[in-house]
Specification:
Rossmann fold, 2 domains, six-stranded parallel beta sheet, four-stranded parallel beta sheet, disordered N terminus, Glutamate racemase, peptidoglycan synthesis, Asp/Glu_race, cell shape, Asp/Glu_racemase_AS_1
Amino acid sequence: MYSSSILDGNLYDFSDKEPQRAPIGVFDSGVGGLTVLRQLYRQLPNESIIYFGDTARLPYGIRSQTEILQFVREIIVWLQQQGVKMVIMACNTSSALALEIVREEFSIPILGVILPGARAAVQQGKRIGVIATPATAKSNAYRHAILEIDPNVQVWQVGCPEFVPLIEQNRIHDPYTTEVARSYLEPLLQQEIDTLVYGCTHYPHLAPVLRSLLPSQVKLVDPAVHTVTACAQELELLDLTNTHPPLPTRFVVSGCPQQFAQSGVQWLGCTPMVEVVDFTDVVVSQLY
């Protein structure tokens, strides 16, 4: 049974009779997952959404697998308590290090971003570059996924530790960010890549910077687009697609709500109302 959830001060009861109306839970370490949220708005406009940004503990890309797994478990437990019908792990680092484990631990459908991104990349080119957080790059998750689909392509990965902090600090148009991006792209350009995968949901925010540094023939792959397409297919398969008008999106963070709201304005076109959640009340061991 889907539990009750408080959205914008009102109580909504998602019972067994109307599971389709329950929200989708989306989470990331910060504003990166807003790229997935925007795709949800475009592709699935009737779906209600709870967006969680774990801003108190970002960046995830420098964390260990043990830390990431603990964070992910806490977030999924909390989202279940809010009555979500599905979870989208809008974070490449979490998808790389924790997805397969938590899928075994939780009964709720959980989608990651790596496999949809890998499938799209293989359809685009044969010389594929991946920019990612250090943890995602180290995991080789994209390389493995891409080569499993097509062992004849070539894949190069670069860890980009500075990108997420720069994006969260809203420094996208800072000249320093362009120089950092140039240094990260250089080894990939030397390999004459024809396709570049955003191996972190934050990175599409850098599209103007990256496009200015890449040859025009290099195709950009945003896994967010393809993840939401997979989400739509999964909802239809499970008979969970909502056909009613959606509820207002609920934004929740673990850190500073004001900072998230300020960062979110340019990606959402409005200033979101942001709540704060304290995970000290989330007891993971009893709920998965």
